[in-house]
UniProtKB/TrEMBL annotation:
Hydrolase among keywords: yes
Protein name listed in UniProt: Alpha/beta-Hydrolases superfamily protein isoform 2
Molecular functions (GO terms): hydrolase activity
Family the entry assigns: Belongs to the AB hydrolase superfamily. Epoxide hydrolase family.
Entries under InterPro entries matching the protein: AB_hydrolase_1 (IPR000073), AB_hydrolase_fold (IPR029058), Epox_hydrolase-like (IPR000639)
Domain AB hydrolase-1, first and last residues per copy: 25-156
Annotated keywords: Hydrolase
Record Pfam families: Abhydrolase_1
The organism's place on the tree of life at top rank: Eukaryota
Length: 292
């Protein structure tokens, strides 16, 4: 990680912070919620050492990137526009894209809106769903998982602590940490969110229904770029609401015709929990493309 450099780039009317390393074909790593570029700390040096120019931005609203206050500034048009601006900044017509969680959702939409800019896509945890014309996205999730679902609470709840109580003290703290992350790594996240706040995390989800109305894919829209999809078999999003059956069934493949699915032994934050396997899966996909 000592060879990772940092800069802020003007794109799509805002400043995005990026971490980058290496030279070669451009690989963009798009983090999820609630995350920053640091979630790719294992993949950045690995891919750079194998001959790639790796760029991991703090997405709009996160970390050291700008955080517009209005949820209306977090539509997929804005988010995809940010990524296109990064490609333009580096003078690249195409890039490989790797997305996790919400970053995967952005990557799916990038492939829908600007497929000519994506050489190949590796998405983790969140599969592609086309538009359900009868249900807005956030509303459908809330109906499936209930009012206690975090996306439901983000629509109305500002997570305000009682008077005289700091919000960090108001939230419940787990009694243990998983083996794939250290106290020092958690502190990196804690320090950054304490410094930057959490505007983006809330606004991404508050903008969900607007995204459905403005930019969601029409029913039957297909992803035509080459795709590898990785998911953990113990990911709650994979185990519930019929997602496992969907990913392993014919509908997903009909919407993403050039698709490879890899199910790993793991949970949601797969690129951290199973970082060696995920890094190898990414590299094996990239090596399928001839060098230019």
């Amino acid at each position: 990680m000592n060879d990772v450099t940092h800069q802020r780039i003007k794109t799509n009317g805002i400043w995005l912070h990026i971490a980058e390393q290496g030279t070669g074909p451009l690989v963009l790593l798009l983090h999820g919620f609630p995350d920053i570029w640091y979630s790719w700390r294992h993949q950045i040096p690995f891919l750079a050492n194998h001959g790639y120019h790796v760029v991991a931005p703090d997405l709009r609203g996160y970390g050291d990137s700008d955080s517009p206050l209005s949820p209306s500034s977090y539509t997929f048009m804005h988010l995809v526009g940010d990524i296109i601006g990064l490609l333009d900044h580096f003078g690249e017509q195409q890039a490989f894209v790797v997305g996790h969680d919400w970053g995967a959702v952005i990557a799916w939409h990038l492939c829908l809106f600007r497929p000519e800019r994506v050489k190949g896509l590796i998405n983790i945890s969140v599969p592609y769903f086309d538009r359900n014309p009868k249900a807005k996205y956030a509303d459908a999730l809330i109906r499936t998982y209930g009012d206690g679902f975090y996306i439901s609470q983000f629509q109305t709840d500002n997570l305000i602590a009682p008077p005289g109580v700091e919000i960090i003290d108001y939230l419940q703290t787990p009694s243990w940490i998983p083996p794939w992350i250290t106290e020092e790594e958690i502190q990196v996240y804690a320090d950054k969110f304490q410094e930057s706040g959490f505007t983006g995390g809330f606004n991404y989800y508050r903008a969900m229904n607007w995204n459905w109305e403005l930019t969601a894919p029409w029913q039957g829209s297909k992803i035509l770029v080459p795709v590898k999809f990785l998911v953990g078999d113990k990911d709650l999003g994979f185990e519930n609401a019929g997602v496992r059956e969907y990913v392993q069934g014919d509908t997903f493949r009909s919407l993403v015709p050039n698709l490879e699915v890899v199910i790993l032994d793991g949970h949601h934050f797969l690129q951290q929990e199973k970082h060696q396997e995920v890094s190898q899966e990414i590299l094996s996909f990239l090596r399928k493309f001839p060098a230019e």
